[in-house]
Amino acid sequence: MVATSRERRADVFQDIEPDSYCNDFAWVEPDPEDRVLVYRGASVLAAPAPRADAGAAPASADRVEGDTASSAPVGQTLVFPTYGLLEDAGAIGPDSAEGGIARADGEHPSALFLFTVGDEAYFRCEVDDEALDELLSDASAGDSDRAPAWRFVPISELRDHGSRSRAFAGFVGYEYDSWYVTRRFCGRCGAALVHDLVERMVRCPQCGCMEFPKLFPAVIVGIVDRETDRVLVSRYAGREYKRYALIAGFCEMGETVEETVHREVKEEVGLAVKNLRYYRSQPWPPSSSLLFGFFCDLDGSDAITLDEHELEHAEWLDRADLPADDGHSLTRDMMRVLRERSEERFPATSLPF
Ligand SMILES: [Zn+2]
């Protein structure tokens, strides 16, 4: 039996139903109430949502409706600044070639459309840092007419703040932002790149080099030993993340994702696997990766040979001992499937291994 999307729980960060994500590229002018995603490092400008239900008057430039897409909020729901707010604060700009948004037709629009999530449209703008700092100091001084408590929130904390849809927007916006800020100059000739007029791409006006958004495909692998009914778990070496993980790795050039599964499992723990079953995928914006989740069976010896460069530890664990915490990640979601012994419901790949 094949699981349907209806059976899935909203365990992974991109599960934003009933909202949906649309990133069809277009040059459109932002409305004052559209949202702007502003990043400093890996943090995004945001403020607590006005508590309309508590009778408090929302800040005029930043009225938001109830957040129907959120499940039980852990913290207070956040909102991102509107274009109108930043424009009024004089924080939109510069619109010149020096750091501005330059288009292939020579225009310098003040905003670049990123995507919509639900009924909110999100833009990227060049921002005047001085004016923005002034807005932030108004916020810290409690000038709530001009700004609620605007601050830069680490993207890793967005998921703790109520709205799945806004956390998704802030998280994915970071991936766009990271791509745009590292695509200012041509990698071949060094000229300043310009934005294409019809698709999400930057091009070199001098040598014609084209740069499209980059993604790194990777696999996450849940390995089951059918003889002992145990699952292979690991811990990464040299990272702060010390919880149990599954085997994971990036695809290499010239390789299929199925081949990546076999190679990574062999490299990291010295095991052979068979009966690959594709589960689902998950974008992971912090590293611009697209993760493909596979389940598979051990093929042969269960003796682990650890790649100590990659992993600190690996072991076979009883299904009941798999961690049950909700990490909104594909790894945690796959561990849930393994704990529930339901991985065989997902389709075997058509390849003979
Ligand atoms: Zn060039």
TrEMBL record:
InterPro entries the record matches: NAD-cap_RNA_hydrolase_NudC, NudC-like_C, NUDIX_hydrolase-like_dom_sf, NUDIX_hydrolase_CS, NUDIX_hydrolase_dom
GO biological process: NAD+ catabolic process; NADP+ catabolic process
GO molecular function: metal ion binding; NADH pyrophosphatase activity
Annotated Gene Ontology cellular component terms: cytosol
Cofactor: Zn(2+); Mg(2+)
UniProt protein name: NAD(+) diphosphatase
Keyword Metal-binding: yes
Chain intervals for the UniProt region annotation (Disordered): 50-70
Organism whose genome encodes this protein: Enteroscipio rubneri
Source species, domain of life: Bacteria
